[in-house]
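Q: Could you fold this chain for me?
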Amino acid sequence: VSTQSTGEHGTWRSLNGDMADSLENREAYAFEEAVSEVADLLTDTKTLEMVEQNIYRMKRERELVETRLKEAVEAQLRGVRTGLFNLQKVLRESSEIGESMDTVNREYQSLYKNLGGEIKEIVSTRQVHRQHDLLHRYLQNIYSFKEDVEVVKSRLNQVMERERERE
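A: Sure. Below is the predicted structure, expressed as structure tokens.
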């Protein structure tokens, strides 16, 4: 006993007990139903239009995604190029700075060698001038001693006179 019913998407059939029990028959029946469904879909003009619209929409979406991906990759590449350019610039500048530092160091070393003897001479001359200044002060103290004694005598006399006047 077999019944058929037609629905929106095709035909379905129910099988009698013999056919339902057999797995092979079920697979064959499912395959036939699937083929029938696909055939019905492909012959329906509305379905074909929907498929074409879906295909067109999917192509547009894929192109949009590909465009966005391409733009993102290009932006990343621009960033990498800029980074590499900056790294090369820093490398050049650091090597120039290193060369300048080497030049300054060489000049400092040569100046230090040349000035070393002159600095020693200046230090010894300064010591001689200090000794001369110290001797000059001693001599001033020796020659001004007599004057200082006179000043002290004069002040002592003034103090003593005031003391007498108070008494």
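A (continued): The first strand starts at residue 3 and ends at 7.
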